[in-house]
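Write out structure tokens for PID domain-containing protein.
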Amino acid sequence: MWQPASERLQHFQTMLKTKLNVLTLRKEPLPTVIFHEPEAIELCSTTPHAKSRTHAGYKVTYLGKVTISGTQFLSGCTESAVVGLVEHRALAQQQGTCPASGSLLEIRPFQVRLHHMDDRGEASVTMDTYQVARIAYCTADHSVKPNIFAWIYREINDDLSFQMDCHAVECESKLEAKKLAHSMMEAFRKTFHSMRSDGRIHKSGSTDDFAEDSSTPEDSTPDDG
């Protein structure tokens, strides 16, 4: 029996709606309908493909952070803060309150990412980010433990005031800590060069405008080997 095109399209849409309702009741992913002609319909599944994302970085144990005073940082300025963080973690391990999951420290230009991994160490549960331009100092030279890498970060508060926080991570080896220090220095150099090229730092006054960020990571280089 012949039907006008409009009636056939209406009939098809009613039939398709019924099928979609069935799919909804079954809690299956709804398809995306791409209309061409009533006789030619293409159904494309909208089910997302789960991909396991891996992060490039160094396996570390995050020891925490502590607020320190001052704005000028010299060799050894992170020692007391690191000692306190190491002692606090040792106490937490004795009391059984220390988290067993590790972290992954990813250093790149403009941003440092600290991925807190799950118990299997396969996926990132949460992530802390640190702007490279706010890192005032970094070092891998600590007498309490040679495999600890620390950096001092200028944290901006909600009221626009700032504080200097010393963050520390325990690496798998002393060499890994040294590598982190050099990676941080390289990330800083690329960030500084890019900001100067973009005009965010004036070449005539780059030392004064960016002294807090430009001098300290490189000052730690001789100690980090």
